[in-house]
Design goal:
- The complex is a heterodimer of chains A (240) and B (101).
- Chain A has 240 residues and is mainly alpha-helical.
- Chain A has helices spanning 8-43, 48-57, 61-72, 77-87, 89-100, 107-114, 119-127, 139-162, 169-193, 195-212, 217-235.
- Chain A has a domain at 10-175.
- Helices cover 77% and strands 0% of the residues of chain A.
- Chain A is globular, with a radius of gyration of 19 Å.
- Chain A is built from 11 helices and no strands.
- The termini of chain A are far apart.
- Chain B has one domain (2-100).
- Chain B is built from 4 helices and no strands.
- Chain B is flat.
- Classes of the chains: A mainly alpha (240), B mainly alpha (101).
- Chains A and B meet through helix 1, helix 2, helix 3, helix 4 and helix 5 of A and helix 1, helix 2, helix 3 and helix 4 of B.
């Protein structure tokens, strides 16, 4: 290895590698769940290309499972598309927070990177990398993280679409818990350091649980997030 | 044909909410309260994503998800790397399934 001053090219390459590394847990979490999705899509009379195409251009786990399940149940195209739209409203809120970190990027980068916003990439980008290990918030870092996650989802779908359902249900359950482990592992460290953030998260959980008894899951998450984040207006003291 | 229509339609309605903030966020000068709200979104969203969803990973066995969630919580309290937190929650669930099923 040669030692020389970091040029902007080598810097952006190292940011890309850091991003890929940061995205690996999501890749591993997505892969088996995408296999389950691919298998389900094939059972729902999608051919392999259609299953993979859906993961390529939709890239939203919950929506894709709901979409294919509705298709299987005989729902019409318009019904499926409308249901998906409402299920995805939470990404609007998440995209606000992610784009807040991308203010200095060109609109092209912002538009490109925003395609890859999911529950998991959002969680990692906004809460990942605790203090001390400040991760670069550059376009190449974010692209590395997001495209790694994306490849986990797309490649998993491709595999699942080939050998319909050879992953035992127990493994899929365990890997789903793994994604919750990702959320919890990202939330706990900052919530520990700030009582305000801990209170916001706890209130959001309770709110989401109560709302879930009244409205459907997608809306409960959106409403709980909007309202509980509103507590921050009162709880956060310092100017931001 | 219907499948293609569903896929393309879903792609559009999924991308639009993701894209809108990229186009409009920096056109507007936001007041301080909005910035505080924005800053709080990750914590609120993660809270809502975790609970009660974690209990429903196996519909008939909420304790399974609870065990995985608690394991992740404990490991996260120890400040372990995110990969280890995930691995711990996955392993406890596999172990419990192996013991009880």
């Amino acid at each position: 290895m040669e030692f020389k001053p970091q040029t902007s090219v080598s810097k952006s390459r190292s940011h890309l590698l850091q991003g890929i590394q940061a995205g690996l847990p999501i890749f591993l979490g997505y892969f088996p769940i995408a296999i389950a999705f691919g298998a389900l899509a094939v059972q729902a009379q999608f051919n392999w290309t259609e299953a993979v195409l859906m993961s390529l251009i939709v890239f939203a786990g919950a929506s894709q499972f709901v979409g294919v399940s509705m298709f299987l149940a005989g729902a019409g195209a318009a019904q499926i598309i409308i249901a998906t739209f409402f299920l995805n409203m939470r990404h609007l809120i998440m995209s606000l927070a992610v784009n807040d970190q991308m203010r200095k990027f060109t609109v092209g980068w912002k538009g490109f990177l925003s395609f890859f916003i999911t529950d998991e990439t959002f969680a990692l980008l906004t809460l990942g990398g605790g203090e001390g290990q400040s991760e670069p918030r550059t376009p190449t870092y974010m692209a590395g993280l997001m495209i790694t996650s994306y490849l986990g989802w797309v490649s998993g779908t491709a595999v699942g679409g080939l050998g319909a359902g050879f992953i035992p249900a127990e493994i899929t359950t365990a890997m789903t818990v793994g994604l919750y482990g990702l959320f919890i592992g990202l939330l706990v460290p900052p919530a520990r350091k700030s009582i305000s953030f801990a209170v916001i998260a706890l209130c959001s959980m309770i709110l989401n649980w109560v709302l879930g008894l009244i409205v459907d899951t997608g809306w409960a998450i959106v409403l709980a997030t909007i309202v509980a984040a509103g507590l921050g207006i009162i709880l956060i003291k310092e100017d931001v | 044909m219907k499948i293609l229509l569903v896929i393309v339609g879903m792609a559009l309605v999924t991308y639009i909410p993701r894209l809108l903030p990229a186009l409009f966020l920096d056109r507007i000068k936001f007041p301080v309260w909005f910035k505080k709200w924005l800053q709080s979104i990750p914590y609120a969203a993660l809270g809502a994503l975790i609970f009660p969803g974690v209990l429903l990973v196996e519909k008939d066995q909420p304790l399974l998800g609870l065990a995985g969630g608690l394991m992740a919580f404990l490991l996260a309290l120890l400040n372990l790397h995110i990969t280890l937190v995930m691995a711990g929650s996955i392993l406890i669930v596999i172990l419990l399934q192996y013991i009880f099923v």
